[in-house]
Amino acid sequence: MQSVRAVILGFGTVGQGIFNIAQQRRAELREQHQVELVIAKVLVTDAARAGRALPEGFDASLLTDKIEDVLASGPIDTVFECMVGAQPAYDHVRALVQQHGCAVVTANKVMFAKHGAALRELAGAAGRQVGYEACVAGGVPVIKTLQNMKLVQHITKVEGILNGTTNFILTSMRTNPGKSYEATLAEAQAKGYAEADPYNDVSGMDAFSKLMILSELAFGAQPAWPEVPVVGIQEITAAKVAEASAQQQRYRHVASTELVTEGGQRKIVASIRPLLVDAQHALYAVEDVHNAVAVSTDYLGVVTLMGPGAGMYPTASVMVEDWLTFVQQNKLKSGSA
Ligand code: NDP
Ligand code: HSE
Fold first, then answer.
1. CB within 8 A of 67, min separation 6: which ones?
2. Among 110, 166, 168, 195, which residue has the most ligand 2 atoms within 8 Å of its CB, making it the best to mutate?
3. 2-138+313-336 maps to which CATH number?
4. What is the rounded distance in angstroms from the CA atom of residue 203 to the CA atom of residue 194?
5. Per-domain boundaries in the chain
6. Torsional class of 148: left (φ above 0), alpha (ψ -120 to 50), beta (otherwise)
7. C-alpha–C-alpha distance, residues 279 and 266, integer Å
């Protein structure tokens, strides 16, 4: 039996989901993969905060609000990073990789859009990997799929719904005409979809971070950030939604990145904006918290993936998958599989 020691940075919706899955799948991990995931330390902002809700079976003595405690918590094989924002998340992860040579699994798309390339280089220098499936489209396996497609396909365009909260709100505004925007947003937060500060969700900035990650993966580069128009859903009123419904149309918040050739030069053109679609459009039927990503390639045409774009278990489960993939690859490398 291999024991893998890991730390979790951030213990909200996603971080607690990782702990719960590790508990729920403990026997399967042992029996099928001969591995035990040991959580050595968990970082939050204020470990002494009164009334903190913790998952059943969690040892509260693992909580700390000092990164020094995490760094000193013995050998660490993997860091699960599920904090909010680029900093101090990136500095913490970087320090852990530098000190422990650990693998990284992150859900933090703001951090990864900005520092992903540097982080992958740093981890690579230590012979380790970075898993970031959870950064884009929650439980929809778009990163793995693009990584695989890229082995042979030339990707020309990636387009889709990348934020679960906005799709949930737009769906709810149409199906519950009397319900207020505030009540719907509060429901999205209670379900663990929306960020604690939902500005990035509704302004389109969350989808922007995800789109930059997809651009980098699909085309090897991100477009210049200031050149990407980002329009949120704030201007979509109940009246506009009702008007669209009367025309058998629906609002979708669509992020798109495309490789185009202009004057002989290849260029990435990206945008994030609400779009009115009719029943013939591929995104018309994507409802509630679901995300969808349509990938255009030379050999395949268009391949569309759809599924839950946010929430505790869709997100945390793909992080545990990233981790387990690394464990299996390391076993193969060491010949102990
Ligand atoms: P939460 O707000 O529920 O949890 C965030 C956690 O991070 C909290 O435990 C918080 O501490 C901790 N934290 C935040 N800032 C710091 C800091 N400076 N130092 C130490 N700890 C800190 O967020 P989620 O779990 O929903 O999301 C986590 C990450 O995953 C985000 O980057 C989010 O964008 C991403 N994500 C979320 C998804 C979702 O469906 N919720 C889906 C995909 C990605 P404390 O508990 O003390 O407040
Ligand atoms: N707040 C994000 C969303 C979480 O609603 O899509 C998933 O990244």
1. 43, 88, 92, 95
2. 195
3. 3.40.50.720
4. 12
5. 2-138+313-336, 142-309
6. alpha
7. 33
Average the pLDDT over 292-317 and give the result. Answer: 98
Residue 332 in this model has a pLDDT that exceeds 80? no
Q: Which of 83-87, 103-107, 179-183, 257-261 has the lowest mean pLDDT?
A: 179-183
**Cα–ligand 1 centroid distance for 112 (angstroms):** 14
Q: Which two tokens stand for residue 58?
A: 């969690």
Measured from the Cα of 49, ligand 1's closest atom is 47
Q: What is the DSSP letter of 284?
A: T
- Specify whether the CB–CB gap between 132 and 209 falls below 8 A: no
DSSP 8-state class, residue 291: E
Selecting among 210, 267, 331, 333, the annotated active-site residue is: 210
Question: What does 219-247 look like in DSSP terms, one character per residue?
Answer: HSSPPPGGGS-B--STT--HHHHHHHHHT
pTM assigned to the model: 0.97
Residue 330's pLDDT is 84
Q: Is 49 helix (H, G, I), strand (E, B) or coil?
A: coil
Whether 315 lines ligand 1, by a CB cut-off of 6 Å, is yes
As a whole-number percent, the residues of the chain with pLDDT over 70 amount to: 99
Residue 156 has pLDDT above 90, yes or no: yes
CATH for 142-309, options being 3.30.1370.60, 2.60.15.10, 3.40.50.2300, 3.30.360.10: 3.30.360.10
Per-residue pLDDT of 212-234, as tens digits, reads: 999 999 999 999 999 999 999 99
Task: Check whether 333 has a pLDDT greater than 90.
Answer: no
Residue 173 has pLDDT above 80, yes or no: yes
- Is 267 catalytic? The answer is no
Say yes or no to pLDDT of 337 above 80: no
Beta strand 249-262 with 155-161 is antiparallel
b/e string for 261-290 if b means 16 or more Cβ within 10 A? eeeeeeebebbbbbbebeeeeebeebebbb
Nearest-atom index, ligand 1, CA of 111: 32
pLDDT at 335: 74
Given a cut of 90, whether residue 76 has pLDDT beyond it is yes
